[in-house]
Structure formats: structure tokens, C-alpha cells
From TrEMBL:
Organism of provenance: Mycobacterium gastri
Record's protein name: DUF4247 domain-containing protein
Lineage, highest ranks first: Bacteria, Bacillati, Actinomycetota, Actinomycetes, Mycobacteriales
Top-level lineage group: Bacteria
Pfam families reported for this sequence: DUF4247
Length: 143
């Protein structure tokens, strides 16, 4: 092989490596909201988030969602499952006449204006000390 062909081959390999790196990095960032919207039918939307219909038990649906992307925290209470991600909180449980509903809320919107917003049972910290009731929420600060 000539020297110019080797330079051409090295350049082509560098371009292919860069394309693979960019593609791999983009696959690392999973968007839970996009996953849910592509797998479940949206039936309601408001300023706080979107709601989707699901079938099966809330626990099974939450397990499927968590199988796609592991949540930063998970809790359950009263037949509902709560999945907290870096940018979203996902609630799976009965709502109205639906035995299984998924609600996706943007955490950035919940924390706007510096206000404390309760993220659901089992998530820590609970409400801040000196809050509306003057107590830290519950045992160990968990509401």
C-alpha cells in the first residue's frame, strides 16, 4: 500500500470511530418520557404532565418501565408505584375509573419558583422542617 492510501484509510477510520462514538453517547441517554409515549396511549395532558393508559397491574407496568431505564428511586404506596428519574417522576396506579394509569411529570416544573413539592410516599427527604406543619414530615424525615 502506498503512503497516501494509508493516510486515506486512517482518515476514514477516524471518521468511522467518531461517528460510532457520537452514536454510542446518544444511546446512553435514555428519555423515559419518550419511551412511555411510544409504548402507551396518552389520554390526558395538563400543565403538570401527561397521563397514559396501561394494562396489567401497576407493579408489572412499573417493572417494565424500570426495566427500560432504572429509576434513581422507587417507592410504592396505596397500590401506586412511584419511579423518580433525574428529570421526571413517573406514577403508575389506579386513577378515576382506570385501574392502571401512568402519569409523567417534569421535576423541573415541580420545583419551579423554589417551592418544595412532595414527590410521593417513601422518597426522602420528606417535607422540610418548619414547613406548613412545622414538623419534618415523618420518621427519619420521610413523609
Amino acid at each position: 500500500m502506498t503512503r497516501s492510501r494509508l493516510f486515506l484509510l486512517a482518515g476514514a477510520l477516524a471518521v468511522a470511530a467518531t461517528a460510532s462514538l457520537v452514536g454510542g453517547i446518544s444511546l446512553l441517554h435514555k428519555d423515559i418520557g419518550s419511551y412511555i409515549s411510544s409504548h402507551y396511549r396518552e389520554y390526558s395532558r395538563d400543565e403538570d404532565g401527561a397521563r397514559y393508559l396501561c394494562s396489567g397491574s401497576p407493579r408489572q407496568v412499573a417493572d417494565n418501565i424500570a426495566g427500560y431505564e432504572r429509576p434513581a428511586a422507587r417507592a410504592s404506596s396505596g397500590g401506586a408505584e412511584y419511579l423518580r428519574y433525574d428529570e421526571d417522576i413517573v406514577t403508575v396506579g389506579p386513577e378515576g375509573t382506570s385501574p392502571c394509569s401512568i402519569r409523567v411529570e417534569d421535576l423541573g416544573a415541580r420545583y419551579s419558583h423554589g417551592a418544595f413539592v412532595f414527590l410521593g410516599p417513601g422518597f426522602t427527604p420528606g417535607s422540610p422542617a418548619g414547613g406548613a406543619g412545622g414538623s419534618p414530615g415523618g420518621p427519619g424525615g420521610t413523609k
